[in-house]
Structures are given as C-alpha cells and as structure tokens.
Amino acid sequence: MTIPDGLLKSTFEAIFDQVRHASGLRKTNLAKLRLFATDVALVAHSVRCSYLVDAISVNDPGPFFSRLLQALRKKNTIFVDLVHWHDPSSLQSFIVNTPLLETLCADLLSTAGRHWTTCVRLDDPPIGVRPTSE
Asked: What is the spatial distance between Cα 132 and Cα 22, in angstroms, rounded to a whole number?
C-alpha cells in the first residue's frame, strides 16, 4: 500500500494538533503525543488494523476518545472508520479501523483449518518469515 506524499503527514498533524490541545493531556510529554499521533495515523490509513493506546493515559477514556474522534472526523473523512474500544477490566483502550478488522477476520475465517501463523524477524526493515512445515 502506498500513501501519497504529504497525506500521512497531514493526517499526523491533524491528530497531533487535536491531542496537543486536549484538556486531559496538557501535562503529557510532546514525544508521547507524537507517538500517539503516528500510531493513530497508521491505523487511519489502514497500515495497521488497530493500536493499543499505550503512549497516553486519560482519566475517562470513553468520553475523551469519543470527543477526539468526533473532532477528527470533522477535519477529515479518513477518520470515519476509526472507533475506540475500551476494556474496563484491563483499563486498556484501542483505536480500531473497523473495515480493516472486518476484512482481516473474514480472511482468517476463510482459511480456517489452514496454518496462518506469520512470523516476523525484527530486522530493519522487519521481514515476514514463513513458518516451517510440520
């Protein structure tokens, strides 16, 4: 997948600008906000299916992420397919690209019974490695 020049940057900037001015994140380190904006931009562009929010912490994630996503959707339609999922038992939040998740689940279900494990060797850049046959 190729993202046109400048599009990922403008998506990042929209997210970063929004979180930089968010009332619940005023004391958050700018590097953490940049990391958050980068990860959400990758989800928005379907490079990633989802993001476990670990760069920032908010007191009330439901309303916070709801306001954030509403504001981002007003800026650009690329954010329309993003949703916030929160697991109260673990206090973890996820930003999810729902159409991409649906596609990945359908692909997974269509290969039921087949080996679909993917291994990744963490080189620079990461390399997908096919698992050996049993």
From this structure: 48
Q: Which helix (H) or strand (E) holds 119?
A: strand 119-121
Domain ranges of the chain: 7-129
Question: Does residue 71 contact residue 31 with C-beta atoms inside 8 Å?
Answer: no
Q: At what angle do helices 7-20 and 30-44 cross, to 10 degrees?
A: 130
Report pLDDT digits (tens) over 39-53: 999 999 999 999 999
pTM of the model: 0.79
- Tens of pLDDT along 54-100? 999 998 999 999 999 999 999 999 999 999 999 888 889 999 999 99
Cβ burial of 109 (10 Å; 0-12, 13-18, 19+) is exposed
What are the residue ranges of helices labelled H in the chain?
7-20, 30-44, 61-75, 98-110
CA distance 98 to 84: 10
